[in-house]
Structures are given as structure tokens and as C-alpha cells.
TrEMBL record, chain A:
Organism: Litoreibacter meonggei
This protein's UniProt keywords: Membrane, Transmembrane, Transmembrane helix
Name of this chain's protein: Cu-processing system permease protein
Keyword Oxidoreductase in record: no
One family name in Pfam for this protein: ABC2_membrane_2
From TrEMBL, chain B:
Pfam family, one: ABC_tran
Lineage of origin: Bacteria, Pseudomonadati, Pseudomonadota, Alphaproteobacteria, Rhodobacterales
Record InterPro entries: AAA+_ATPase, ABC_transporter-like_ATP-bd, ABC_transporter-like_CS, ABC_Transporter_VariousFunc, P-loop_NTPase
Keyword set, alphabetical order: ATP-binding, Nucleotide-binding, Transport
An MF annotation (GO) of this entry: ATP binding
ABC transporter domain mapped to chain residues: 5-227
Protein name according to UniProt: Cu-processing system ATP-binding protein
Origin: domain of life: Bacteria
Length: 274, 296
């Protein structure tokens, strides 16, 4: 079982390397982190926080957009591509379970994502600490951001596999992935914000809104990182309004989502008839 | 010894359209069986059911003593137009398949050499020709020691020399006790290289047996081409009222039973006949006879 999962992971890693996905993912994360750390190195005396914590707060806002995007870009083709190339029927006649195939792909794609995240955040941290050695005190926040980013990425990789299995065509899977990214990462917050404003402190704001934030893996990720580093004051309106949500709830959402998305992916893949 | 593959009364429909109806067959160890049928006759569907890729609607099927898909480590498959990821090299692809089968990957290079791909092992499959991709497909079907090989149009895209090599490989596998079920459009090569033929038409098994058996069952007429010596054409025609003039010679067809009697009558006129050619019904004729019988 382990040997078969590893075999699939190695093969997927070869493919990702040849298709330049590793390069693209790392370059995206590094370039955007550089831009942010350059922008974040402006004087921050008024906040009273160390420089790295400020950079982590900006990286959090960036990662909410970028990590799901990179994860979906790597995963949307996983099943639909095999169907379209005609490689799936042969693969499924091998003594390998479908979930083992997905697990192997997940292993490779997550490893690439970790490399990209570590490279991006590492560059940002190195620049910040080089400019102000006192910023080392923010390393805890950076570590928290790193592992939650990996979990967020794994969640969207799983969602990408599920969409890929449902679409069965690469073009359809790409469309679904972009739509889902826009919906969960961009429009979801806008919709909630509009609802909170219209509701004006009523039932929606007190009860539905916190649950709605926790239900979205991207929002839970942002919430957890900003609450944990007590940077909510400096953060966006949505997170500010949700400051009342306890830390353990957002942590739970972050931990549960990868499992949920992978179960969804496995179920969707099982329905694919070669 | 028990059969490697047994199918009885298999039925499969796609949205009300019957792809397979009441198909029964058995393949013994070491037997090479050819599956014939025109496009859409149900060959690929039958293979996919055997492989456990699609579930049948009815009937029983046993593959290497287990339900289809439960004995995957003993079954090898070569899909029609074998496709692989173009970014992988031939060696990486074969290594991957060997790992999935739990075979030592040290044999990967040797396997590629065996199908004549050793020189291209480290090139991407995207740069391969169709024939080379087909060889990668063949190589993966040889991994381990499969007891049943299911090959969908294995020789399409191969040149004549590669085809001969391919059938020699199959002969070796069959001699070791592997059962082979292959589909093909190239009737002449199937005729020489398999033990038994199955003809599918419209999802039904319309004929089954060795070529001589099928020839007898079809009872197709034998053709004779007689070349008369100068001036004797009319003499021969009056002796053989069924003969017709064709391209300067005489053409005659008769049933299998009448063949010897007719030959005797012709040889009785040997001073008038320059040449005689006897043409038995070809595999193509037999094939069209069976697959047309159901109004196809």
C-alpha cells in the first residue's frame, strides 16, 4: 500500500517538475512574499508589534488568495486529465485502489506546495530579520502561518480532485476550479460583509455570521492566524467583526477541512466510470 | 486445470441499448483466443467487463478464480491506442507500473529492450511515434507473470516486422501457461496466430471455434478458376453448366461436399484444361458470413 502510494507520488512529482508546476508555484509565492515584505518594512512603531509579526499579518492576507489558487492549479487536472488522455482505464486495471492513487497525487502536490510556501515565507522572513534582528520574536507567528497554509493548501488540493472527478473534462474542471476559487475566496467575504452591513447588528451578525466564517476554510484560516497573533485590529473589516470567535473554533475548522475535502475527493473519484 | 476466464450469459446495456447480450465463453490456460467483430460489436465493452472496469447487468463471470477486478495482480491489459502521460519518459512510466505491481524495478530496462525500446527509454513519451507508444503498452502488459492478458487491438500501429515479433512474444507467454484474449481487425494474422476465434456481432456471440470448424459450419462455397486450352472453352462450359466466363477464364463455385466430385469432372477433361486454381473461402468471407447473419 505504502509502496504504491509512494510510486504514484514519485511519478506525479516527475510530471509536475517537467510541466514547470514546481517552478511556477515557488516563483508565485516568492515574488508575492517579496513584494509584501518590501511594502511591510515601512515604520510600524504605532502598532507596537515586531516587524515580522506585521509581515506575517500581510502574508496571511496574501496566502488566503494565493495558496488556494496554487493548490487548485495543481490539482484540477488530476482526474480529468487522466480521463481525457485515456490513461485512467489502464491505471485502474492495476492492483491499486483508487484512494491510493489519490493519496499518491496528494502527497506529491502537497510536497510541492510546502516547498513553495517555505520558499516564499522564508524569503520574506530572511529579509525582515536582516533589516531588524529584533523581529525574531515573530518567528512563532510565522511557523503558525506556515503549517496552517499547508493545511489550507491540502484542503484546496482535495477540493480540486473532487471537482476534477465531477467534471471529467479538463476544461470543465478548470472552469469549476476558478469559479470555486472566486466564490470561496473573494465573493464569499463580500457577500457576508454586505449581509452584515444590511443586518446592522441583528441575528445574522451575532449567530449566522460566525458560523458562516468558520464554514469557509479560507476564512477560518485568516481568522485563526489573525486572532492568534492578535492582529485583528489591523486586519480587514470581516475579521475585525469576527473577533469574538474563540481561537479553538477556527483551529478546528482548519484541521477538519482537509479531511472533509479528501473524503469528498475520494467519493467523487469512486463515481468516475472509466 | 480450471479455466482462466469463464463467462456465462453476460448482459450489459448502456441506457437501454444492449451492448452485450447472453455472451458465454471460456478461455483455458495457455490458449490464445481472438475476439473478432466490427466496430461497436461489443469487443471493448466485453474486455472492460472482464477487467472489472464496468459492472455487468447480468450473468456470471470468473477471472482467475475470482470476480472481475478482484484478481488484478494476475491480469494484464493493453488498451486500444495505449496512452501515457507525455511528460514521463518510457523508463519512468514502466518503472511506475512495475512498482504498482510490486515487481523489482531493476528489470525495467530489460523489459523495454525486450519490446525494442531500449534506445528511447530516457526520452519523453511525448516524442514517441504511435508504434513506440504501443510498445510501451505492450511492455507494461508483460510486467510480472500475468495469467490472463487482455489485449485490445494490440498490433494496430505496428509495422509487419514488429507484428511478427509481437506474436512470437505471445507464443512464448502462452507456452508458459498464460491465457490470451485479443481483439483485432487484421484477420490474416489472427488466423495464423491464435487457437480459437470468437465472433461478436451486435453484442451477441455469433460464432466460436477454430478456423477449420468455422469454415465447416459456415459451409461457404469453394471457388474454382479454370483456364481452358485454346478453343476448348465451350467444351468445358457444356460439361460444367454452372461455370461462367470471367476475365478470359472460367469461374465455378460449388459447395464443400461437391468439391471432390467437381474436381474429378475437371480432371477427366485434363487434355482441355491449361490450369486450375481452387480458392477456399477466406477468413474475411467466413467473418462476414457470421457477422452478417443477424441482419447487420
Amino acid at each position: 500500500m505504502i509502496a504504491r502510494i509512494l510510486a504514484t507520488a514519485v511519478t506525479e512529482a516527475h510530471i509536475a517538475r517537467r510541466n514547470r508546476w514546481v517552478l511556477i508555484a515557488v516563483a508565485l509565492m516568492v515574488v508575492f512574499s517579496l513584494v509584501l515584505s518590501a511594502a511591510g518594512s515601512a515604520p510600524t512603531g504605532a502598532l507596537g508589534a515586531d516587524r515580522l509579526s506585521v509581515v506575517v499579518a500581510s502574508l496571511t492576507s496574501l496566502s488566503v488568495y494565493l495558496v488556494p489558487l496554487v493548490a487548485l492549479l495543481m490539482s484540477f487536472e488530476a482526474v480529468a486529465g487522466e480521463v481525457e488522455r485515456g490513461t485512467l482505464p489502464l491505471l485502474l486495471t492495476y492492483p491499486v485502489a483508487r484512494w491510493e492513487v489519490l493519496a499518491g497525487k496528494l502527497l506529491a502536490h502537497t510536497a510541492i506546495l510546502i516547498v513553495a510556501i517555505v520558499a516564499g515565507y522564508g524569503v520574506a522572513a530572511a529579509i525582515t530579520i536582516a533589516a531588524d534582528p529584533a523581529a525574531v520574536s515573530g518567528l512563532g507567528a510565522l511557523w503558525r502561518l506556515t503549517w496552517t497554509s499547508v493545511l489550507l493548501g491540502a484542503t484546496f488540493i482535495g477540493i480540486g480532485y473532487a471537482l476534477s472527478s465531477l467534471a471529467r473534462r479538463v476544461s470543465g474542471a478548470a472552469g469549476l476550479a476558478i469559479g470555486l476559487w472566486l466564490g470561496l475566496v473573494v465573493l464569499y467575504d463580500l457577500g457576508l460583509l454586505a449581509a452584515v452591513v444590511a443586518d446592522d447588528g441583528g441575528f445574522f451578525t451575532t449567530d449566522v455570521f460566525p458560523a458562516a466564517l468558520l464554514a469557509n476554510p479560507a476564512d477560518a484560516f485568516r481568522l485563526f492566524n489573525l486572532t492568534a497573533s492578535q492582529a485583528t485590529a489591523a486586519a480587514s473589516g470581516v475579521a475585525g467583526a469576527a473577533a469574538a470567535i474563540p481561537l479553538w473554533q477556527s483551529l478546528l475548522s482548519i484541521l477538519i477541512w482537509p479531511l472533509v475535502s479528501l473524503v469528498l475527493a475520494a467519493l467523487a473519484f469512486r463515481k468516475v466510470e472509466p | 486445470m480450471t479455466s482462466t476466464l469463464t463467462i456465462s450469459h453476460l448482459t450489459k446495456a448502456f441506457g437501454g441499448v444492449k451492448a452485450l447480450s447472453d455472451v458465454s465463453l471460456a478461455v483455458e490456460p495457455g490458449e490464445r483466443v481472438a475476439l473478432l467483430g466490427h466496430n461497436g460489436a461489443g469487443k471493448s465493452t466485453l474486455m472492460k467487463v472482464i477487467l472489472g472496469l464496468i459492472a455487468p447487468d447480468g450473468g456470471e463471470i470468473t477471472v482467475c478464480g475470482a470476480a472481475p477486478g478482484k484478481a488484478r495482480s494476475q491480469v494484464a491489459y493493453l488498451p486500444e491506442n495505449a496512452a501515457f502521460h507525455s511528460a514521463l519518459t518510457g523508463l519512468e512510466q514502466i518503472t511506475y507500473y512495475m512498482r504498482l505491481r510490486g515487481e523489482p524495478v531493476s528489470g525495467a530496462m530489460e523489459l523495454l529492450d525486450r519490446v525494442g525500446l531500449g534506445h528511447a527509454a530516457k526520452r519523453r513519451i511525448g516524442t514517441y511515434s504511435k508504434g513506440m507508444r504501443q510498445r510501451v503498452g505492450l511492455a507494461q502488459a508483460l510486467i510480472g507473470h500475468p495469467r490472463l492478458l487482455v489485449l485490445d487491438e494490440p498490433t494496430s500501429g505496428l509495422d509487419p516486422v514488429s507484428r511478427r515479433d509481437f506474436y512470437e512474444l505471445l507464443d512464448g507467454l502462452a507456452a508458459d501457461g498464460a491465457s490470451i484474449l485479443l481483439s483485432s481487425h487484421a484477420l490474416t494474422e489472427v488466423e495464423a496466430r491464435t487457437d480459437r476465434l470468437l465472433i461478436l456481432s451486435g453484442g451477441r456471440m455469433v460464432a466460436e471455434g477454430s478456423l477449420p470448424e468455422l469454415r465447416r459450419e459456415a459451409a461457404l462455397p469453394v471457388s474454382m478458376q479454370i483456364t481452358a486450352l485454346n478453343g476448348y472453352v465451350t467444351d468445358i462450359m457444356s460439361a460444367l453448366p454452372d461455370a461462367i466466363r470471367l476475365n478470359g477464364g472460367l469461374h465455378l463455385s460449388c459447395t464443400q461436399e461437391d468439391k471432390l466430385a467437381t474436381l474429378a469432372r475437371i480432371s477427366a477433361m485434363q487434355e482441355k484444361v491449361a490450369d486450375l486454381e481452387v480458392i477456399p473461402p477466406s477468413l474475411e468471407d467466413i467473418y462476414s458470413h457470421f457477422s452478417r447473419r443477424d441482419g447487420q
